[in-house]
Amino acid sequence: MVQAIIIEDEIHAFDHLNNIIINNYSDKINIIGTADSVKSGIELIEFNNPELVFLDIQINGGTGFDILNHFNEKTNFEIIFTTGLIDYKEKAMDYFAFYYLNKPIRESQFIEVIEKYLSRKSRFNLENYLAFKHQVENDNNTIAIPTGAGDFKILKLDNITYCEAEGSYTTFHTLDKKTYLTSHNLAKFENLLAQSTFSRIHRSTLLNLKHVKEYSSSDGKVILTNGETINVSTRNKSGFIKMLKLMNYSLD
What we know:
Layout: E1 2-7, H1 11-25, E2 29-35, H2 38-48, E3 52-56, E4 58-59, E5 62-63, H3 64-71, E6 78-83, H4 88-95, E7 99-102, H5 107-120, H6 126-137, E8 142-148, E9 151-156, E10 160-166, E11 169-174, E12 179-182, H7 186-192, E13 198-202, E14 205-208, E15 212-216, E16 221-224, E17 229-231, H8 237-248
Parallel strand pairs: 1-2, 1-3, 3-6, 6-7
Antiparallel strand pairs: 4-5, 8-9, 10-11, 10-14, 11-12, 13-14, 15-16, 16-17
Helix pairs in contact: 2-3
């Protein structure tokens, strides 16, 4: 049986989560303690050495990040975040392979997350955590891309001109014309950046519309703010023009 604790400062949210656990996993998950603040959460983890922690991000005395920072590399438990963060940040959590439950927690959502956890029984990954934390704290302004061997490169979204597919890999192109290769495919980043200014202009290209300087509809070429030129496919032309008009209040 998995030994778990809940760190949550909203009584209603705690009761709801605890009841879902009792109703669905009383034979697999044992809640051995609860806390409602950074201080009590740290003490609870140190005393009980749990396998799994249900952790609210915003709690009394700080954030769930403060608790994880206290343990740093000594962390040997898995985290399931319980959070009200949605949209882009939810996708960021999924991208960095953290388990999460969006409030208000749905029973079906809980079962899906727990089944994933039980099948993997993984442990806390420091590199993924740091990347995820950076995503949340920077409020959609940056992206942390995995570059291999547990390393990440933090890029400002405004400094990315476009992302280019290379088979199952993706290359990020930046304003200073540097490139960064990552082993995730372009579709993954398209989903991750869905709430930002990036738009698919070709099956192999995801463009940051902020860096469009000129566009020629006759040959489908886009000139970027750093002088680079890329192509818009015939298939994506109408959608691309529509996005340009929406962003730039075209009178056409």
